[in-house]
Design brief:
It is a multi-pass membrane protein. The protein is α/β, with parallel strands linked by helices and 1239 residues long. 42% of the residues lie in helices and 15% in strands. The longest helix has 161 residues.
Length: 1239
C-alpha cells in the first residue's frame, strides 16, 4: 500500500501544477503555454467545474466554492504530496497521520464535486456555453469524468481508513511495547517490592470500593436489560455482581493470599556438575508479557493482575464487554496503586475492544503468551490468527460417569454437587453417563435427587424409560435429548444424560464430546478407576469426587488465571507455577573459565563428569546422627539488642519491651546504608570514635496465630512438602491466621553472647544473672546467626515450611550489616525446636550459593533501651562466663569457635578458616602484614609507625590498637584512652604496638602466643618470663621490646631437649614403621586373595546374570507369544460369538417362517381333502349324468331306427332294457332304472 500511495502522490504533482493552477489564476497571469493542457482537457471531457473556474460558463461567483477547492489543492495538498513522498521513503511513523488528514480532506471535497458532475445535463454533443449556468455533457464525456473523479474519492477514502487502522495499531503497539518494557524493567524489582505492590493494590481497592461498586451496578443494569431483551443468558448476570455474598471480601483476600505465597522465581529444579568448577542449574523465571482474554467476570481482573505481579509477568487484560465499566474502574485503581510502588504503573493494562485484541495478536515481538478463556470457537480463532503461543482455556464440558460398580450414596452426592453447586462455573458437569446395568437401580435415585434440585434432565430413550412416575410428576423437567445436547455447555440447571453399555463406551464418548476440562467416575472398582484415569484425555480426571474441585484455590494455588485444556507447559488450573518457565544457568568458578574445545574424545581431551549436585549429607540417618552429635556439644547463647531512645517520638520507630511482643507494621524498613535524616542523626552520639556496629535496627516479624481449640493441624493452613532433609523444596501457603509486617527500632547494636564451656574467669560457680528475667530455658527459642540478604522473609518461610506448624513467632533482625540478617524463632514446644535444629543446622540455603545455615539455641533475648548519652554496654565481666562474639573481617559473620574453625595469623587478626583459605595473598586481609617477610627478614627492633597517634589525645607513647575495629589509644599508664575505648565498645583485645603483645581486657592479662625472636627469628613464648608489665627487666622505665637474654637461654635449653626427644621419637617411629609395613604386606596379600575371590564371585554372578537375562528374555518371548495367541484366540472367540449370535438370530427368524408355513400347509391339506371329496362327488354325478345321457342317446337312436323301419319293424312294440355297467366298484344311481321306449 505504501508503494501505491507513493505512486499516487508522485503522479498528482504535475496535474496539480498544470491543470489546477491555470484554472485558479487569471487569464493573463500565466504564459499561453500553460493554457494548452486545460483547453485540451476541456475539449475532451467538457468538465463543467474547470470550465466554470476558468469563467467559460456560468456567472462569476457561481464556482467560487470550487476555486477555493483549487486554492486548497495548491496551498495544502501540493505540500502534502511532497511531504508524503518524503515520509513514505523514510517509512516514518507520521505516515498514518498524513493519510488520515489528506484522505479525510479530499474525501469531503470530492462529494460536492461528484454531485456537480452528476447534476450536469447530458446531450448528444457536449456544449460549453458562456451564457448558460451549466454546460452539457455527452455520454463519453460523462464516462470520462466519472472514471477520473471516482478514483479521487476511493483512493483518499482508502487512505483515511488505512491511516485510522494504522493509528489504532500504533496505539496497540504502544500498549504492547509498554507492557514489554515494564516487564523487562521489573526483572530488577525484588520479591518484597512485588509483595508491597500487591498490598498497595489491596488497600487501593478498599479505598475505592464505592466507585467500583457503582460502576459494577451500571454494568448489572445494562446486563439485565440485555436479559430482558433475550440477548443474554440470566446465568451470566450472576458473574457480574461484585456485591453479592462475600465476593468482594474474597477478592481482597485473594490478593493477600497471593502476596503471601512464596516467590515462584529462582527455584532450582535441576542441578548438575558438568566438570570441576563447572555447574549447571535450571532456575524458574517469568514468561514475559501476557495477553489474557477472559469472560465477563470483573473479579478476574484482580485475580490475574495479582498472579501476574507475583510471578513477575506484565499483563494486558481484556474482559467481557458486559463488565467494561467495572473493569475500567479496577484498571484505574490498579494503576494508581502501582504508581506508588517500584513497579511501572503500566505493568497491568486493560483493553476494551476486539479490534485492539486483533492488533495485539499480531505483535509477537512484544507479547509472549496469550491466555484466552472462553468458548472453543474463541480459542481456535485466536490460535489461527496469531503466531504467539496460546494457552487455551475453552468450554467446560465436564462429564460424570456412573460405573456399573458405583455406590448409590456416592453417586447421588457427586452428581448433585457437580451440577448444582455452581451451575454457571466451567467445572460444573454438563453430561451424565450411566452404565446400562444401573438404569433400574441407581439411576432413578440419582434422577430423583437432581429433580428435587430443579435440574432439567435431557435423557436419551434408554435413560428416559426407567423414570416412570418421575416423568409424569416432573414432566417440565424431563425431556428427550438431542444430539447437540451432548456438546453444549448449559451453564444452568440442565444436564444431558446418556446410557452407555460399557466403560470403554463412556471413555470414547468423553474423549469425542468433552472439552478435555474435567471428568469424573463414580465406582468401587479400582481397576475400572485406573482404566478411566489413564484413558480419559482431560486436564482433570477424578475418582468418586465432584468436578467442582477443579479450581486453583481448592488445589492450593491461591487463585488461578484459568484452567488450561491445551498441551502447553501448564495444564489444568493455572496458578503461579503455570506462569513461570525456566532458564539454564551455567556457572564456571575456574580461574581461566571453561571452553568447549577442551572436551572431546582423544588424547589430552577432558571428559564431562555429569554428576548430580548432592546435599551435604547423603542420607537422612547419617545427617541426623551428625547433627545430633553436633547439637549435643553446642553452647548456649544470649541476645541483647541495645537501642537508643529517640530524643523525639517518631511514628516510624518503635521501642518494644520484648522481641516477641506485638509489633506495629511500618510502611518500609529503614536500611543503615541510607543517609540518616536529621531526626535519625540526632540519635547518634557525638563521639570522637564511633562504634562501627551502631546502625539502624529493623525487624521483619511474623506471628502464627493458633485457634482456641489448639488444633495445630489448622495453623496457617501450611503444608509439609518433602522429607525433613528436603526442606528447601517446601511450600508455604498462609491464610488469615498469620500476621506479618516490618518494624523499625531506631538505632542500636545487636549483641550476641556465648557461654564458655569452662568455669568462670573468677571461679564464680553461680550462673549468669544478667538476663535471667528474660530467660527461655525451656529450649523453645533458636536463632540463625546469619541469613543472607538474597533470602527474603517469604523465601525464608518457604524454606522452613516443613517446620512451620511448630513456629509461634519469627523475627528477622536487620542491623548495620548490609548483606546479613539474623532470624530468631520461638517455637510452640521444645520438640519442634529440636526437630528444626536437627533438620536445618549446617544446611545450604540454596544449592547455588555456598552459604550454610548455623542454628544456635538461645537462652534469653533482651531489649536494652539506652539514652543518647549512654555508652554501649559491655556484657562480659569477671563474674560471668559469657563473651560477645566478634565478626569475621572477611564475611562479616559472627566468629564462633563452637560452630566453625577459626585461625589467628601472626598479626593477631582472627578469621574463619574457610574465609582465610580463599585469600590468595600471604598478607593479612586486614592490615596487609606479611608473614613470610617476618621469617625471611626478622627485624632487629620493632618498628613503630612514626605517624601513629592516640585518636583521643594525640600522644605517640605506649600506643595500643584495638584488634576489632582498629582504634588507636594510649595505655593505662598514660591517659588510658585504649581502656576507655574498651569500656565504650566492649571490644576485648588490643595489641601493644611496641611489643606486638595482645592484651585481653576480659581476662585482664596478656594472651599466650608465640612470636618470632627479634635476634634469631625463632618462635618464643609471650609474655616473656623476664619481662613484666611493672617494668622488671626493662630499661629506663620503658616497655620491653621483646624477649631478653634469659628468654633466649631458656629457649636454647628447650631446643636441646626437643632435639634429644626428636631423636628418640625417630628411633621409635622407625621400629613402628617396620612393624606396620609388615602388617601392611600381610594385609595386601589378604587383599589380593580377597580381590581374586571377589573376581571369581563377580564372574559367577555375571554368568548367572546372563543366564537369568536369557531366561527372562525367553520367558518374555513366550509371554509375548502367549499374549499374541491369547489376543488372537480372543479375537476368534469374539468372531465366533458374533457368528453364533447372528446364526441364533437367523434361526429364530427361520423358525418363525417355518411355523407360518406349517400352518399354511395344514390349511392347504384340509382344503385339499375337502376338494377331493367334492371331486369324488362330482365324478359320481358326472358318471350318473353320462349314464343318463347314454340311455337318452340310446333311446333316441333306437327311436329313430324304429321310426325309419316303420311299424313293420320287428322292434316295434318291444321293450328296451339297458344292461348295468361293467364296473361294480361304485354303485351307480339309477342303474336299476328301466328305460322304456315309446311307441
Amino acid at each position: 500500500m505504501d508503494l501505491i500511495y507513493f505512486i499516487y502522490f508522485v503522479i498528482h504533482i504535475p496535474p496539480t501544477l498544470l491543470m489546477d493552477l491555470p484554472a485558479l489564476l487569471p487569464m493573463g497571469s500565466l504564459p499561453p503555454i500553460f493554457r494548452v493542457l486545460p483547453n485540451f482537457y476541456l475539449e475532451m471531457s467538457g468538465d463543467p467545474l474547470i470550465a466554470g473556474a476558468m469563467d467559460l460558463h456560468g456567472t462569476q461567483t457561481q464556482f467560487t466554492w470550487f476555486r477555493s477547492f483549487l486554492a486548497m489543492e495548491e496551498l495544502f495538498q501540493l505540500p502534502m504530496f511532497i511531504t508524503g513522498i518524503y515520509l513514505l521513503r523514510k517509512n516514518s511513523l507520521y505516515v498514518p497521520l498524513l493519510l488520515i488528514v489528506y484522505g479525510t480532506h479530499v474525501t469531503t471535497t470530492m462529494v460536492p464535486v461528484l454531485a456537480t458532475v452528476l447534476a450536469t445535463p447530458e446531450t448528444a454533443t457536449g456544449i460549453v456555453d458562456k451564457g448558460s449556468p451549466f454546460s452539457s455533457l455527452n455520454p463519453s464525456q460523462f464516462s470520462m469524468l466519472m472514471s477520473s473523479y471516482i478514483p479521487f474519492l476511493i483512493m483518499p477514502l482508502t487512505m483515511a481508513v488505512d491511516g485510522a487502522r494504522r493509528i489504532l495499531r500504533l496505539m496497540n503497539q504502544s500498549i504492547a511495547r509498554t507492557s514489554k518494557k515494564a516487564f523487562e524493567a521489573s526483572q530488577l524489582v525484588g520479591h518484597e517490592d512485588r509483595v508491597a505492590a500487591l498490598h498497595a493494590i489491596r488497600q487501593a481497592l478498599q479505598d475505592n470500593k464505592a466507585a467500583i461498586l457503582e460502576a459494577n451496578k451500571l454494568d448489572m443494569q445494562a446486563a439485565q436489560a440485555l436479559v430482558d431483551a433475550g440477548n443474554l443468558a440470566p446465568s451470566l448476570v450472576k458473574r457480574l455482581d461484585l456485591a453479592s455474598g462475600d465476593k468482594w471480601d474474597s477478592m481482597l483476600q485473594g490478593v493477600i493470599d497471593v502476596a503471601n505465597l512464596p516467590d515462584p522465581n529462582g527455584i532450582v529444579s535441576y542441578a548438575r556438575k558438568l566438570d570441576d568448577d563447572l555447574e549447571l542449574y535450571r532456575v524458574s523465571c517469568p514468561i514475559g508479557a501476557l495477553l489474557v482474554i477472559f469472560e465477563a467476570r470483573p473479579e478476574v481482573v484482580i485475580n490475574i493482575a495479582a498472579l501476574a505481579i507475583k510471578s513477575g509477568n506484565s499483563a494486558i487484560l481484556k474482559g467481557g464487554k458486559e463488565s467494561a465499566q467495572t473493569a475500567q474502574q479496577l484498571s484505574l485503581t490498579i494503576r494508581s496503586a502501582l504508581a506508588k510502588s517500584n513497579l511501572d504503573e503500566y505493568y497491568i493494562q486493560t483493553v476494551e475492544t476486539r479490534s485492539e485484541v486483533s492488533s495485539l495478536l499480531e505483535m509477537d515481538e512484544y507479547i509472549d503468551l496469550v491466555i484466552p478463556r472462553g468458548s472453543n470457537a474463541l480459542v481456535k480463532s485466536i490460535q489461527h490468527n496469531t503466531r504467539i503461543p496460546v494457552m487455551g482455556h475453552a468450554d467446560g464440558l465436564c462429564a460424570v460417569y456412573l460405573d456399573e460398580a458405583a455406590n448409590l450414596n456416592k453417586a447421588v452426592r457427586v452428581v448433585v454437587d457437580s451440577k448444582t453447586n455452581y451451575p454457571a462455573a466451567c467445572n460444573a458437569s454438563e453430561t451424565l453417563l450411566v452404565h446400562s446395568s444401573l438404569l433400574d437401580t441407581i439411576w432413578p435415585k440419582v434422577a430423583e435427587a437432581l429433580l428435587s434440585n430443579n435440574v432439567e434432565l435431557r435423557c436419551d430413550p434408554e435413560t428416559l424409560q426407567p423414570l416412570g412416575i418421575l416423568t409424569q410428576s416432573s414432566s417440565h423437567l424431563v425431556k428427550p435429548s438431542a444430539p447437540e445436547d451432548y456438546k453444549t455447555e448449559f451453564l444452568s440447571h440442565t444436564i444431558a444424560v446418556l446410557a452407555v453399555p460399557s466403560l470403554a463406551a463412556a471413555v470414547a464418548h468423553i474423549n469425542s464430546h468433552s472439552s478435555h476440562h474435567t471428568d469424573s467416575i463414580v465406582t468401587e472398582n479400582q481397576n475400572n478407576a485406573s482404566i478411566f484415569c489413564r484413558s480419559v484425555d482431560s486436564a482433570g480426571v477424578f475418582v468418586n469426587a465432584s468436578t467442582r474441585f477443579a479450581d486453583g484455590f481448592r488445589y492450593g494455588f491461591g487463585t488461578e488465571v484459568g484452567i488450561s485444556t491445551g498441551r502447553t507447559h501448564a495444564r489444568g488450573p493455572v496458578g503461579l507455577d503455570g506462569l513461570v518457565i525456566y532458564k539454564y544457568l551455567l556457572r564456571s568458578s575456574s580461574g581461566e573459565g571453561h571452553i568447549v574445545g577442551e572436551y572431546g574424545v582423544g588424547e589430552g581431551k577432558k571428559k564431562f563428569k555429569h554428576t548430580e549436585i548432592q546435599e551435604k549429607h547423603s542420607g537422612a540417618q547419617e545427617a541426623s546422627t551428625a547433627i545430633a552429635r553436633r547439637s549435643a556439644s553446642m553452647l548456649n547463647y544470649h541476645i541483647v539488642i541495645s537501642i537508643f531512645k529517640p530524643a523525639k517520638p517518631s511514628a516510624n520507630t518503635f521501642i518494644p519491651t520484648s522481641l516477641f511482643a506485638d509489633f506495629p507494621n511500618h510502611p518500609q524498613l529503614i536500611t543503615s546504608n541510607a543517609d540518616p535524616t536529621p531526626l535519625e542523626a540526632s540519635l547518634i552520639p557525638a563521639r570522637t570514635s564511633k562504634d562501627y556496629r551502631l546502625g539502624h535496627i529493623g525487624v521483619n516479624w511474623v506471628d502464627f496465630i493458633i485457634k482456641n481449640d489448639g488444633s495445630r493441624s489448622e495453623i496457617a493452613n501450611m503444608k509439609r512438602a518433602g522429607s525433613a532433609f528436603r526442606a528447601a523444596s517446601g511450600k508455604f501457603i498462609p491464610t488469615n491466621e498469620i500476621r506479618s509486617g516490618v518494624a523499625n527500632l531506631s538505632q542500636g547494636v545487636v549483641h550476641i553472647l556465648r557461654e564458655s564451656r569452662g568455669p568462670s574467669r573468677k571461679d564464680a560457680d553461680s550462673p549468669p544473672k544478667l538476663l535471667e528475667e528474660f530467660s527461655h530455658e525451656d529450649g523453645t527459642v533458636l536463632a540463625i546467626l546469619a541469613v543472607p540478604s538474597y533470602i527474603g522473609p517469604s523465601d525464608f518461610l518457604a524454606w522452613t515450611s516443613p517446620a512451620a506448624d511448630g513456629i509461634q513467632h519469627l523475627r528477622i533482625v536487620h542491623d548495620n550489616q548490609p548483606n546479613r540478617s539474623m532470624a530468631v524463632i520461638k517455637f510452640r514446644a521444645k520438640v519442634d525446636a529440636d526437630a528444626f535444629l536437627e533438620t536445618y543446622n549446617g544446611r545450604q540455603f540454596t544449592p547455588m550459593e555456598p552459604e550454610t545455615c548455623h542454628v544456635v539455641r538461645v537462652l534469653s533475648v533482651r531489649i536494652n533501651t539506652l539514652d543518647v548519652s549512654s555508652p554501649i554496654p559491655y556484657f562480659a565481666d569477671q563474674a560471668t562466663i559469657m563473651s560477645e562474639l566478634p565478626t569475621c573481617p572477611v564475611c562479616l559473620e559472627r566468629m564462633d569457635a563452637a560452630l566453625t574453625g577459626l585461625v589467628t595469623v601472626a598479626c593477631s587478626h582472627t578469621f574463619h578458616c574457610a574465609c582465610l583459605s580463599k585469600w590468595g595473598d600471604v598478607r593479612c586481609p586486614v592490615c596487609r602484614y606479611s608473614q613470610t617477610m617476618m621469617v625471611t627478614h626478622p627485624p632487629s627492633t620493632v618498628q613503630v609507625d612514626p605517624n601513629a597517634r592516640c585518636s583521643d589525645c594525640g600522644t605517640d607513647a605506649n600506643l595500643w590498637i584495638c584488634l576489632i575495629c582498629g582504634n588507636i589509644g594510649c595505655g593505662r599508664y598514660a591517659r588510658a584512652h585504649a581502656h576507655a575505648h574498651h569500656e565504650f565498645s566492649a571490644h576485648l583485645y588490643a595489641l601493644e604496638l611496641a611489643t606486638q603483645r595482645v592484651w585481653d581486657y576480659a581476662g585482664d592479662g596478656y594472651i599466650h602466643r608465640l612470636i618470632h625472636n627479634r635476634a634469631e627469628g625463632k618462635l618464643v613464648e609471650l609474655p616473656s618470663s623476664s619481662n613484666t608489665i611493672n617494668g622488671g627487666g626493662t630499661t629506663n622505665g620503658e616497655s620491653s621490646l621483646g624477649p631478653g637474654p634469659d628468654d633466649m637461654r631458656a629457649a636454647e635449653k628447650v631446643e636441646a631437649v626437643g632435639l634429644e626427644y626428636a631423636n628418640l621419637l625417630a628411633s621409635q617411629l622407625d621400629s613402628q614403621r617396620a612393624y606396620f609395613e609388615e602388617q601392611a604386606a600381610e594385609l595386601r596379600t589378604a587383599l589380593e586373595a580377597t580381590r581374586a575371590e571377589l573376581s571369581r564371585v563377580k564372574a559367577a554372578a555375571e554368568e548367572r546374570a546372563k543366564e537369568d537375562e536369557t531366561s527372562r528374555a525367553e520367558a518374555s518371548e513366550r509371554a509375548s507369544e502367549s499374549e499374541i495367541a491369547r489376543v488372537n484366540a480372543q479375537k476368534r472367540a469374539d468372531r465366533m460369538q458374533e457368528l453364533a449370535r447372528k446364526l441364533e438370530k437367523d434361526l429364530k427368524a427361520e423358525r418363525a417362517v417355518s411355523e407360518g408355513l406349517m400352518t399354511r400347509i395344514n390349511k392347504l391339506q384340509e382344503a385339499e381333502a375337502v376338494g377331493a371329496r367334492e371331486r369324488a362327488d362330482l365324478q359320481e354325478r358326472l358318471k350318473d349324468v353320462e349314464e343318463q345321457l347314454r340311455d337318452v342317446m340310446f333311446f333316441l337312436e333306437a327311436k329313430t331306427t324304429i321310426e325309419q323301419q316303420g311299424e313293420q319293424s320287428e322292434l316295434a312294440g318291444g321293450s328296451i332294457i339297458v344292461p348295468p355297467a361293467l364296473s361294480t366298484s361304485v354303485p351307480q344311481k339309477g342303474s336299476s332304472r328301466k328305460k322304456k321306449g315309446g311307441r
